[in-house]
Design a protein that fits this description.
The complex is a heterotrimer of chains A (165), B (197) and C (227).
Chain A: H1 2-59, E1 64-73, E2 76-85, E3 90-97, H2 111-114, H3 141-160
Antiparallel strand pairs in A: 1-2, 2-3
Chain B: H1 2-14, H2 25-30, H3 35-64, H4 73-95, H5 97-103, H6 107-111, H7 114-125, H8 130-160, H9 171-186, H10 191-196
Helix pairs in contact in B: 1-8, 3-4, 3-7, 3-8, 4-5, 4-7, 7-8, 8-9
Chain C: H1 2-14, H2 25-30, H3 35-59, H4 68-90, H5 92-98, H6 109-119, H7 124-154, E1 156-157, E2 160-161, H8 176-193, H9 212-215, H10 218-222
Classes of the chains: A alpha+beta (165), B mainly alpha (197), C mainly alpha (227).
Amino acid sequence: MKNKEKRESRMGKYAVPTMVLVIICIVVTGALAFTYGITAPTIQKNLEEQERLAAQEVLGGIEGVALKSQVKSYGGKLLAIVGFSKSGEVTGVKVLTHSDTPGLGTQPMKEDYLKQYIGLTELNAEHINDDSTVDAVTGATISSNAIYQAVSQALAEYKESGGEQ
Amino acid sequence: MKELIVIMMTVILVDNFVLSQFLGICPFLGVSKKMDSAKGMGIAVTFVMVIATAVTWPIQKYLLERYDVEYLQTLVFILIIASLVQLVEVTLKKYIPPLYKSLGIYLPLITTNCAVLGVTIMNIDEEYTYLQSLSNTLGAGLGFLLAMVLFSGVRKRLEECTMIPEAFRGIPITLVSASLLSVAFMGFGGIVEGIFL
Amino acid sequence: MKNKLKTLTNGIIKENPVLVLLLGLCPTLATTTGAANGFGMGISTMAVLVCSNMVIALLKDIIPSKVRVPAYIVVIAGFVTIVQMLLKAFLPTLDAALGLYIPLIVVNCIIFGRAEMFASKNSVLNSAMDGIGMGIGFTLALTVIGFIREALGSGTIFGMAFAGEAWTPMMIFMLAPGGFFVLAIIIATINWLSKGQAIKKKEIGCDGCPMIEQCGGYCDREEGRLA
């Protein structure tokens, strides 16, 4: 008699709390799945819209291809988007995300500075300082070089894919 | 290999979890007064972080992503961390009592330490591989430990200082010191690349 | 009714979670690079706080004590994820600005602390009031800190420049050291204005910390505050 009581109370001690927890988990997961279903399409649309706008900006209205390029910069990864016209010229460069120092490190990300890349079809140097066709920003060599590398990378990718996409 | 070292050194010095990324502030300000507690907390946090990463990364890749339920990430990760902390506590208590005595008391506080959840999510966001994640986490923990230990030294001096204005005593002067330490660490920016590459 | 009002205003001034209880400092320092960001973070956190407070108060008699902690975690994490998804869908700029700190709301001491200390022992309505009060207090603190850092650090208020060319902003306020420093000044100011009455405990201690039952007041003992 005593054993049965003991067994039952032990069951109660562990079974009930666990059941409650499991039920809560299921309910919460269900709520999340529901919310996900509602919001996912909007989230996807937002991402696509963002990319579309960025591509539009670097292509400047011309027909062409915009490629994203990620490199390592001063404070972390730098993601840039580079636009190419049908004839393989750079139409525009824009920095999307970065972790460089605001102020000095972001000088090379300004439109006025990035203009110098427009029209280029070749970037052959190892480092921006070795290439006479583009200038680095004094005091922000690493950031300037990162952008140089990003554009080079995008250029290489563009050429590799045959210039069409 | 070099890349792993760069990742680790970057997060210890340049992107220090406490002094640059503001993760782990509560224990940083609460437990850093004495060198022993600072060390103990730092080691315990690093320990839990590494195990948490080792477990959460594969779960993200092979469970959450495979079944398209990435939105469960926050929920799953925090539950894993909470359970891990319990598990570690119980295991230490039973098998390594002396270690439990010195570290065990910090363990419950680690569950709500934003640095632990932060690093596990960060590894996924940065798209690190398994090894890179572990390096990043180890670095994050060591950076935390470093900040804690340095700061406990500073706080000891502050305690002995008699010239602090009334309004600043306690938390404010501590925060000011933290801001100075943070500025100091900013000096590391850009160094890591230069040394290791 | 008067009691409810008291519960509400408690969280705004007397027990302001950030400036008096010294809780939730991680997001306070990290997301206050702008007044709008601070405000957005505050509101998001408040949403989670109110919802989780209410649900936990609702379920307080059903949740066995043994699984109290994991149950709270699941509920809180659930609401945080919902807020995450809603932000990503409808306020993507805020989501990008707050980044990692949105999922980190789940480990914000304030939420777990209020769940443990208030919602588990009070009615749904009172818990909602508490959540709103604490949430407003949090949002207020974050917005003010964000305002100061943004104004000094980039010369803008809610994104609009106010000084023009006349004055160069001090970038450091937007960076990590600035965060620590501004918070220090604000707390010191409160200390000074209230002649030491507001922040009775000058250290981060166990009061209001959600882990107090788990660690038995470790921080206070260790720091020699308790006997």
